[in-house]
Input
Amino acid sequence: MLPMKAISRTFYHMTANLLFFLVVPVFFFLFVLAYKPFDIEEFLAVGRNRFTLNVIVTTLILFGTLVLSRMFVFLLRRNIDMNWAQYILWCSMEVVFAGMMTSILVGVGWHGAVPYFTVMAKCLLYILAIVIFPYAMITMAIQLYVLGKLAQTAPYIDEKTLIRFYDDQKRLKLVLASTAILYIEAEDNYVHIIHMDNGRVKDYTLRSSMRALEDVLSRHSLVRCHRSYYVNPAHVDMVRKDENGFALAMLDREGVKSIPVSKRYYENLTAIL
Output
């Protein structure tokens, strides 16, 4: 099983934490007073007309819980790296702790008329049902902000530089920026597309012929240098001849073999360089 992706470091920033311990309690307070969902009014009144007072105290408990929890996360931000499952668990623990603290207050008010575990279960359910909305909205807002920042810093790729490679059945198999291609080598009924992907040299084998690719490769400034090779001049450091007089194109990536250059294409390639 693949590990779950870590949350963005933005979730540890003070601004993000302020949103949680300010927005969530305020939402809880206003929502409960305005809508009195479920039977929460009777429950928090504890038979003594203490509804408003207990809503205020519950809100303060929720506020205090979130302040302590989020400040802890902020202070230890350099030493923790939660994934999404751990983050959801952390949020759940905040709700559980606030619910348990509230259940002590409400349980005392009921003086045993309602079993304590019933009080605790109701407190947990009420708080969870109400705060799950602001939790979700704040989390989504932060994540959208993170994705927006990533989109702004992502390298721009001009659609015109993309080469779409189709196999011999006209099925789209690979899309690459022309600048990422180092060279293309023909082998029997296949071509090897040697390209860069996240800083690594990769080889994609495509069932196609060099003849089928000639037009699209030429349009994207790849140059034929041999009967079996096309090369990207942008990645050619130099063309030199070996001890036997055969010309070789030396590429600008370590570990990539030299590409043979035949006499027929030598002058054209060196003129471009």
